[in-house]
Amino acid sequence: MTVIGLGMMGAALAGAFVKDGHPTTVWNRSAAKADALVAQGATLAPSLADAVAASDLVIVCLSTYETVLENLEPLTAALAGKVLVNVTSGTPEEARQHADWAAKNGISYLDGAILAIPPLIGQPEAFIFYAGTTQAFEAHQATLGKLGTAVNLGTNVGLASLYDTALLGIMWSTLAGFFHAVALVGSEGIKAQEFLPFASGWLGGVGSFLPDLARQVDEGDYATDISSLDVNKAAIDHLVHATEAQGVSTAVPAPIKELIDRRVAQGHGTHSLASLVELLKKPGA
After folding, report:
1. Which one, 17, 138, 202, 273, has the greatest CB density within 10 A?
2. Beta 108-115 vs 127-132: how paired, if at all?
3. pTM for the structure as a whole
């Protein structure tokens, strides 16, 4: 296979293939970035055209989708009939645009999204989502599996990017909550590492709520006898008040309080927290 783009992630992808014994051609605008890979057994293509010509499976990992097109559009004839796997970070809209471009030029296209850091590439803990041409994924599933756990999301080419950004949203929201929490207890001199065991245990408990909440969202039935929005409204009022009183920013809890307040004001105070999804699905509601 060919790997185009040898930044930290691209180099990790190529390195995983080389380590597994796959003949791997690499190319990067700055050729020196290939030195370590060549020493391990990779072949450095003298030009991008040579890199594309070398393999039927071409994996591209560049800085932006725009850069991908700038580099590959002059080589559409050479790419025709090949499988192009684009693991560049972008948006669902960009993925669809590139899939259209590929289809018009006879290129089998898979859009990929890597949910891992470079050191995890090649291990099962690295999840890589793929969406696009079914035959392309099936033909190269075993090879792509050398990079991590390969997940086929089907022919809706925007889903790989959408899953990636949705999961990153969970990460950032969770970390923001943790940072707010340690700032809050830190206002009384409590060290973050001292508070950590309780935060970790609590996150595990919160994770156990997800199956039932997901069921409620899918069914649209938010009835609960456990933790209603009315109950949570009182609790988050206390949180925001305590945050202000401790001299800590309310930037994290205030938007959540606003959502809960709005949903309660609409008459859904007896519903569960899962009912907040209705406000997120319909922002103007």
Report:
1. 17
2. antiparallel
3. 0.92
pLDDT in tens, 43-89: 999 999 999 999 999 999 999 999 999 999 999 999 999 999 999 99
Class of domain 2-162: alpha beta
Tracing tokens 């409590």 back to the chain, one arrives at: 190
CATH 2.60.40.1600 fits 173-281, yes or no: no
Using an 8 Å Cβ cutoff, are 121 and 9 in contact? yes
The structure tokens 């700032």 sit at: 183
Q: Let me know: does 72 contact 79? Beta carbons within 8 Å.
A: yes
Q: Residue length, the chain?
A: 285
d(C-alpha 234, C-alpha 18), whole Å:
57
- For 177, the token pair is 């909550």
The domains of the chain are located at 2-162, 173-281
Q: Which string of DSSP letters, residue by residue, matches 58-114?
A: EEE--S-HHHHHHHHGGGHHHHTTSEEEE-----HHHHHHHHHHHHHTT-EEEEEEE
- Separation between Cα atoms, residue 175 and residue 173, nearest integer Å: 6
